[in-house]
Description:
EC 4.3.99.3, binds magnesium ion, binds S-adenosylmethionine, 9 strands, iron-sulfur, 4Fe-4S, globular, binds ligand 2KA, 9-stranded mixed β-sheet, binds iron/sulfur cluster, alpha/beta
Amino acid sequence: MTRIPVMEIFGPTIQGEGALIGRKTMFVRTAGCDYRCSWCDSAFTWDGSAKDEIKQMTAEEIWNQLYELGQDCFDHVTISGGNPALYSSIGNLVNLLKEKGIKVALETQGSKWQEWMKDVDDLTLSPKPPSSHMETDLKMLDLIVDNVKVLKNASLKVVVFDDVDFQFAIDIHERYPNIPFYLQVGNADTTLKDDDILVKNLLKKYEWLIDKTMMCPKMNDIKVLPQLHALVWGNKRGV
Ligand SMILES: C[S@@+](CC[C@H](N)C(=O)[O-])C[C@H]1O[C@@H](n2cnc3c(N)ncnc32)[C@H](O)[C@@H]1O
Ligand SMILES: Nc1nc2[nH]cc(C(=O)O)c2c(=O)[nH]1
Ligand code: SF4
Ligand SMILES: [Mg+2]
């Protein structure tokens, strides 16, 4: 299969999360996920609610749409989902983007390995804490971390909703102490339309996560961040 199931293509916008927070980037969001996180903010990629919007696209078609949207105003593309690591065909897109001089980032939970992941410039692995109701396959995560440790820009990002998640984050950081580590505030209101209330709630949760991190001796060399795009645009899609 040379085509890629694409849910949406958008940008330019800012990377709102993790190591590249604030960086200008385009997004390609694939459809389909092997997980079903209880609080997934992109559940439309896998719950069937937007299945009519999924397009089976070639790498060239994706490039054409990226260029139509971004013209010469971008040099970076983030591939997210769903889980893009379900598809070997994304290797074609990574190669094409590199040919065009575009840097490529990947967002994935670390449940699947693809050879093309070695060619990604900025790799974010986001293993899921207990509140997601998913179980992390640590053997697979070990394998992926081992495969990408040659990459300069691999990082770990754990979303935290509660104390149990925070302990999971500590465990992950201790397991991979040499990979840059990011804590991310969980958004518990992914369907809320009122941005004022949403932002107030998110900033309160951010303060809670900062306080926990400041008092934790095992979390001294990490960064703690909100989802910047949620603070600016709320729960809007395609930003
Ligand atoms: C939608 S996922 C897609 C990529 C991949 N499936 C993954 O989970 O890493 C992108 C990022 O959003 C995070 N995320 C999803 N729902 C969230 C929520 N409600 N609050 C905070 N972060 C969330 C995920 O943990 C992941 O780091
Ligand atoms: N601006 C913006 N930044 C993001 N960082 C990770 C995202 C994702 O859904 O993977 C995301 C997203 O959807 N929008
Ligand atoms: S792994 Fe990512 S896309 Fe899949 S359900 Fe969880 S947060 Fe959503
Ligand atoms: Mg998102």
